[in-house]
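Question (not urgent): is this output format expected?
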Amino acid sequence: MWKGFLVGLVVANGFEWIAHKYILHGTHRSGKPRYSPVPDSMKSHWEHHREVRKTDFYDHGYVEGISNWRTKNEIISLAVVATSTSLMFYPVSKGMAAAAVYSACNYYYIHRRAHLEPDWAMKKIPWHYDHHMNSNQDANWCVTKPWFDYVLGTRVISSKDLQEQNPLGMVLPAAVSKILNFVAATYFPAKWVEKVLP
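Got this back:
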């Protein structure tokens, strides 16, 4: 079960990257608005971006709870994804099914807390802070862990203060982090920008 759970966490992180990039942000189309297969989720997400840029990363919608349409949309979307993927994975691996549910709950917890406690977000998930406050908002797609941003070359760091301890985004012994950082710098280097927009 544990192997399936760990595989499920990796799959969930990959899905997080894909969903954020293609559903929530939408794809660019020459001379037309961005396209998303779920336009209401894209609309909700871009309103979230506008809100946090004005309020230095804080999003009051999370205080309002499900009475806020953006928060309600996020909860419903996560419930649909968690339910459908866990049902799909269950016959193959109970661990992967459990990881799908855990990942959806963890995503909501981390995303909500980050936008209610910006200082916590800067320390614990700097890649997501960079996603919103960096000059390039079409980067740093992962929220919970930056794994697929490193693998796919979309981790863009705006300052040394917003660089995670290692590419796994986890607290690890310094020696392990040093090895992971060397491997990431060699095979999956992050990009850097010069400044964060106010």
